[in-house]
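Question: does this match?
>
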Amino acid sequence: MSADLAEKTDRYERMLADAIDAAEPRPPADTPLGGAAADVAEMAASYLEDGRHFRANDDPVNALASYAYGHGWLDAGVRMGLFAVPDDTDLFTT
């Protein structure tokens, strides 16, 4: 595996894991928007898990794609107002 792919995969895995930790659902859980936030959070966590599975099976390209997709889901949720994130973070495109 090239060093660039390994470094980028490492970075995207950390970025997604940190983003999941930083994002706090805004709407109450028992509302439709709360359900949407839960769905987005579940998708992001699933893509993180998938990426780790791909990595463990020596498939860094699909691992990187999974981390990027997971972050995209979470970033979209932040942009839609489903999650509150710290003002001092550079993990999102807010």
